[in-house]
Amino acid sequence: MSPSQIISKLKEQGLVVVVRGDDKEVGFKTAQACIAGGITAIEVAYTNPDANMIIKELSRCHKDDVSVLIGAGTVLDSVTARQAIMAGASYIVSPSFNIEVAKICHLYAVPYLPGCMTLTEITNALEAGCEMVKLFPGSVLGTNYITAIKGPLPHVSIMVTGGVRLNNVSEWFNAGATVLGIGGEFNQLATKGEFGTIQELASSYTSVRDKMK
């Protein structure tokens, strides 16, 4: 898929789970539970030391399912970005904008979603060719901030991460968010090995999302 097609798929999904964990088993099982629950866009964070292996295994398992998108998160440099792309990541997410990461992603035709807070950061990312930016941390900025950003930049596609909960999904979408990044609740359950509950939670999120359409 082209970068624009991947971005379109993310918009269609509307939800991305940020999967952390401390090892391959926990990260992989968390992602699989989310996919089984209906959230098919996964962001494997590089805070997990086995992120490369998780991305590779998930990409292999779901290579024939075009609805599943496996991306990489917490990518801080171009070396990590290339490793993630070689492992099979279909999109790259970072907590801040890094021009070298942007260059690597464009070189390999992989979408780059950098973390931004200010209008300057967002416009810099757009000028660098990013089709979507991550607004982080959402818990600090709030829904009104998205509305304010959409004033001068009505065309910008925003993924909000941080502060998204099951009871405020509609508020974020109504404020103008394109995609919601979730993970805290899922990763807490993963530390307890409650993967069945993770699947149920994912299903609950998709139900709320579907009601918004």
UniProtKB/TrEMBL annotation:
SUPFAM superfamilies noted in UniProt: Aldolase (SSF51569)
InterPro entries named in the record: Aldlse_KDPG_KHG (IPR000887), Aldolase_TIM (IPR013785)
Pfam families: Aldolase (PF01081)
Keywords from the named record: Carbohydrate metabolism, Lyase
Recorded GO MF terms: (R,S)-4-hydroxy-2-oxoglutarate aldolase activity; 2-dehydro-3-deoxy-phosphogluconate aldolase activity
EC primary class: lyase
PANTHER family tied to this protein: 2-DEHYDRO-3-DEOXY-6-PHOSPHOGALACTONATE ALDOLASE-RELATED, 2-KETO-3-DEOXY-6-PHOSPHOGLUCONATE ALDOLASE
Subunit and interaction comment: Homotrimer.
Name of the protein in its database record: Bifunctional 4-hydroxy-2-oxoglutarate aldolase/2-dehydro-3-deoxy-phosphogluconate aldolase
Organism: Streptococcus suis
Gene: eda
